[in-house]
Amino acid sequence: MNNLFDMTKKELQTFLVAQGMKKFRADQIFHYVYKENIFSWDEMVLLPKKDRQLLKDVLPIHFPEIVSRLDAPDGQTVKLLLQLADGETVETVLMMHDYGNSICVSSQVGCAVNCAFCASAKNGFVRNLSAGEMVAQLLAFRKYVTPELHSIVIMGTGEPLLNYDNVIRFMKLIHDKDTLYLGYRNMTLSTSGIVPKMYDLAKEGMPITLAVSLHAPNDALRRRIMPIAEKYPLEAVLQAARHYFDVTGRKVTFEYILIKGLTCTNACAKELARLLGGQNILVNAIPINDNYDVGLYRPDEKTMNEFVTYLQRHGVPVTLRREMGSKIQAACGQLRIKREKI
């Protein structure tokens, strides 16, 4: 089935001409969708009535419906659980920063990677999202919350590099001047370390930020919390990250989750400093959102600050991520799981 949000303007032009419509109608449709946030054929009144009726039949607009909306008490985070055309649900989160609004996009329904600290895979992998279904997550916030968008992070449910073609198409679509015209440098893709696809990504000529889920300073601990590490050892992941930097010139971010009694220890800090000290990278230390579904919890403030300070003193550029959304179950997969339990 054709999906309007999957199409470039050129593809839409070709489609319309094949239906006997004028090519220039694609300009009007894209203006309605991406500039005026109109997602109904009936409301696109510049189109002839007969064209609108035909488009309802041959190109129905399946705009996601809100199943659940959670707003953080501070007003800076909004999480939506969206229902797609086939009834599956997907989560997406808007985070309001000083520099602008950032949307966390999901790339799959469910996840096959099955990290111990993440709820996304608890009910298994269902399917990949199309590029249009990822675009629709951004459009949902434009319709229901705010049209203002500074950046996107593909860090929601799913492993983006296991849905490689659709994710690449998604980023190219929203970069296009006829759609959202979002700069590649305002896009971040997070991967658990799918090494072959990291090399492929370096060839794309898209200067996005690559964020690699490191989460442990050695293979033994990483395998314990990230089963994907059995297939892609730590050194292979680090080598692919170095290659990405060499090819693109874009500094790689390493995400490191802080879990009480597991990854946020003195021993881990020392090992991580030996592994990454002095390199042109950035470590993003992420306090886990207390996740009762998977039984892992956030360290106390003192322990986290000591961990970060040790790394900084030993030549590791590191930031402690500002927590957003912990009050509204913003960790990946939590809201979807909660609904499926009902």
Automatic annotation (TrEMBL):
Positions that bind S-adenosyl-L-methionine: 158-159, 190, 213-215, 289
Annotated GO MF terms: 4 iron, 4 sulfur cluster binding; metal ion binding; rRNA (adenine(2503)-C2-)-methyltransferase activity; rRNA binding; tRNA (adenine(37)-C2)-methyltransferase activity; tRNA binding
The EC number(s) this enzyme carries: 2.1.1.192
Domain (Radical SAM core): residue spans on this chain: 97-327
One GO CC term, this protein: cytoplasm
Residue numbers annotated as active site: 91 (proton acceptor), 332 (s-methylcysteine intermediate)
GO BP annotation list: rRNA base methylation; tRNA methylation
Key words of the record: 4Fe-4S, Cytoplasm, Disulfide bond, Iron, Iron-sulfur, Metal-binding, Methyltransferase, rRNA processing, S-adenosyl-L-methionine, Transferase, tRNA processing
Enzyme kind, highest EC tier: transferase
Localization annotation: Cytoplasm
Textual note on the cofactor: Binds 1 [4Fe-4S] cluster. The cluster is coordinated with 3 cysteines and an exchangeable S-adenosyl-L-methionine.
Residues that hold [4Fe-4S] cluster according to the record: 111, 115, 118
Signal peptide: none
Cofactor(s) listed in the protein's UniProt record: [4Fe-4S] cluster
Presence of keyword tRNA processing: yes
Catalysis: reaction(s): adenosine(37) in tRNA + 2 reduced [2Fe-2S]-[ferredoxin] + 2 S-adenosyl-L-methionine = 2-methyladenosine(37) in tRNA + 5'-deoxyadenosine + L-methionine + 2 oxidized [2Fe-2S]-[ferredoxin] + S-adenosyl-L-homocysteine; adenosine(2503) in 23S rRNA + 2 reduced [2Fe-2S]-[ferredoxin] + 2 S-adenosyl-L-methionine = 2-methyladenosine(2503) in 23S rRNA + 5'-deoxyadenosine + L-methionine + 2 oxidized [2Fe-2S]-[ferredoxin] + S-adenosyl-L-homocysteine
Something else known: Reaction proceeds by a ping-pong mechanism involving intermediate methylation of a conserved cysteine residue.
PANTHER family: 23S RRNA METHYLTRANSFERASE, RADICAL SAM CORE DOMAIN-CONTAINING PROTEIN
Function: Specifically methylates position 2 of adenine 2503 in 23S rRNA and position 2 of adenine 37 in tRNAs.
Entry's family note: Belongs to the radical SAM superfamily. RlmN family.
Protein name in the entry: Probable dual-specificity RNA methyltransferase RlmN
Species whose genome carries this gene: Megasphaera elsdenii
Gene that encodes it: rlmN
